[in-house]
Amino acid sequence: MHIRQARGDNLRLYQSFELHPGPGLNLVLGPNAAGKTTLLEGLYLLGRARSFRTSDAAELLGRQGPGWSLFAEVQTDQQRDRLGVGWNGGEQEQRVNGEKARAATLPKTLPLQLIDPVGHRLVEEGPGYRRSYLDWGVFHVEPLFYGAWQRYQRCLKQRNQALRQNLPDLAVNAWNEELSTSAHEVTDARRRHAEALSGHLGAWVEQLLGVADTRIEFQQGWSADSDYRSLLSEQLSQHRRVSSTTQGPHRAELKLWLAGHRAKGRVSRGQQKLLVAALVLAQCAILIAAGKPAPVILIDDFSAELSSAYQQRFAEALMAYPGQIFITAFELPAALQNVDARMFHVEHGKLKATEQDSVGYE
Question: Is-contact 61 69, C-beta < 8 A?
């Protein structure tokens, strides 16, 4: 699967852009504040229905009108799909093949992953980042997961509201059965994916970081020895004190261990970046093994935080990837010299293909 073409209008500093990438490696070069990251942001929006830089759609607005829009044509072995995302001062709208679509439809049509300079948050910051990472993979390989996750979120919201309003026990416990059923469905799917990650991650970490001992520890968000429905009843008094359900899949965690130590707080920024790359590549490998298209990978600022040796390892891993990749950099990194790639240059919000753009794609 790959993006055949993409275009955008009035997106940040771009009045408009049109991109015709190759199916493999695509390099986007240019100086600071030229629009490289915005280009990846536009592609990310088309695959995730949200930005990785802001939660406010108005912040993406350029100077050419009241709204912005994005379009892409995506090719798989079986079909070609047209995706659109736009905002015109109201709610953001998504379209697939000309029809209005829910935000969750875009990831199914264009699965993509991002590795950027703030990707260290996946390793260093709170468990919410790691839950989001885990759930992206589960969403793509477990067909029933998204429905179970939605049911869990809905029931959790209703139970917490009953707790905040100090309603009688009967009203609070009325949500326990469905909350428990969906909690176990969500957790079982997450656990299967974490186990699959354990089978793939070690090889990527060894290739990128040279560390042989890698371990993933999945914590489900409540005691593994407890039935969730029973726990909800047993902990009701505690939940009333804090007006919140304090255990459950919304508290799940994915801990990463390297050479017998927690990765959090022990690895450098460069190592964090390569660990995130290993996590992304391992997750993509799971999707490919499940018969899914290889996700598109977006890499912002390839060289940031990486020594030349680490850049070389990263480049070698990417060259073996069977899917489409977009990489931004200030200038062509030495590790990516003489590779088959389509190349683009960005400056002052102007995107153009360079003379080398046909290398490897004739």
Answer: no
